[in-house]
């Protein structure tokens, strides 16, 4: 059954088996959080009006019986998917360009942070020995936070992905949490050490998933 959110006009599909036989209720829109009133279909809606009593052959009004309950029950229905929002999986070259953009961004950010940390480290220790190791650790943390925070945010993507009009979702098309984004980020290590084969899989898998996408249970799809 298809329903439309009156707040943001997003269409959803809900299983007809979840709709009560004697009434409707409210579903919660996954996109804006608004309430969507749902009524049973004509087939499911109980008959109203009049009926014929077989034994007497006369008409009796049903108006004395209470109508089916339409009391709102938030979360009564699960909105399975925003199917009209799907615009295809992001291809290899789109994702490749996004990686290049993110590389430039992280290089610039790393240069600024590295210079600052190196200066502070050298000033406090009186030597630059060991500054390289500290810089590498800081670089790993910055890269992790950049990808994990942005991909789990409402933007669902890094600056590179946003520029190319793509985003990261789970297998149902929903935004991923920080933990999943973290798993996806560090899974890229495996995609890299096997001679980048984990990245090349994007060009050949049906859903354009790299190895790190599969390990984290993610998809990269077109935003527009």
Explain this structure:
By secondary structure, this protein is an alpha+beta fold. The protein folds into 2 domains: 1-85, no CATH class; 92-222, no CATH class. It is built from 6 helices and 8 strands. The protein has helices at 92-125, 131-151, 159-164, 178-193, 197-200, 211-216, and strands at residues 2-4, 11-13, 25-28, 35-38, 50-52, 59-61, 166-170, 218-222. The strands form 4 sheets. The chain has a two-stranded antiparallel ribbon. A two-stranded antiparallel sheet has the order 3-4. Helix 1 (92-125) packs across helix 2 (131-151) and helix 2 packs across helix 4 (178-193). The longest helix is centred in the middle third of the chain and has 34 residues, at 92-125. The model is unreliable at 42-84 (pLDDT under 50).
Brief overview:
The chain is an alpha+beta fold. The protein has two domains: 1-85, no CATH class; 92-222, no CATH class.
Present the secondary structure layout:
Blueprint: E1 2-4, E2 11-13, E3 25-28, E4 35-38, E5 50-52, E6 59-61, H1 92-125, H2 131-151, H3 159-164, E7 166-170, H4 178-193, H5 197-200, H6 211-216, E8 218-222
Antiparallel strand pairs: 1-2, 3-4, 5-6, 7-8
Helix pairs in contact: 1-2, 2-4
Overall helicity: 25-40%
Strand order of the largest sheet: 1-2
Rg is 27 Å
How much β-strand is present in the residues? 5-15%
Q: pLDDT average, as an integer?
A: 79
With helices defined by DSSP (H or I, 4 residues minimum), what is the helix count?
Answer: 6
- In total, the number of strands is 8
Largest sheet: 2 strands, antiparallel
Task: Note the overall shape.
Answer: elongated
Order of helices and strands: EEEEEEHHHEHHHE
Q: Classify the secondary structure makeup into a structural class.
A: alpha+beta
How many domains in all? 2
Q: Which spans of ≥5 residues are poorly predicted at pLDDT below 50? A: 42-84
Q: What is the CA-CA span between the terminal residues?
A: 26 Å
């Amino acid at each position: 059954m298809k329903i439309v959110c009156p707040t943001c006009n997003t269409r959803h599909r809900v299983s007809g088996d979840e709709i009560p036989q004697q009434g409707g209720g409210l579903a919660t829109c996954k996109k804006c959080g608004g309430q969507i009133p749902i009524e049973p279909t004509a087939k499911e809606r109980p008959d109203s009006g009049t009926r014929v009593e077989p034994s007497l052959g006369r008409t009796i009004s049903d108006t004395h019986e209470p109508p089916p309950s339409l009391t709102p029950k938030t979360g009564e229905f699960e909105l399975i998917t925003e199917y009209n929002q799907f615009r295809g999986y992001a291809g290899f070259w789109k994702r490749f360009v996004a990686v290049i953009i993110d590389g430039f961004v992280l290089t610039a950010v790393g240069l600024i942070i590295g210079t600052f940390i190196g200066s502070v480290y050298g000033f406090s220790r009186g030597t630059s020995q060991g500054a390289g190791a500290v810089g590498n650790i800081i670089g790993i943390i910055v890269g992790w936070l950049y990808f994990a925070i942005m991909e789990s945010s409402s933007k669902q993507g890094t600056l590179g992905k946003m520029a190319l009009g793509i985003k990261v979702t789970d297998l149902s098309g929903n935004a991923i949490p920080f933990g999943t984004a973290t798993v996806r980020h560090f899974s890229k290590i495996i995609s890299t050490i096997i001679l980048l084969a984990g990245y090349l899989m994007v060009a050949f898998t049906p859903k354009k998933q790299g190895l790190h996408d599969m390990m984290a249970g993610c998809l990269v799809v077109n935003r527009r």
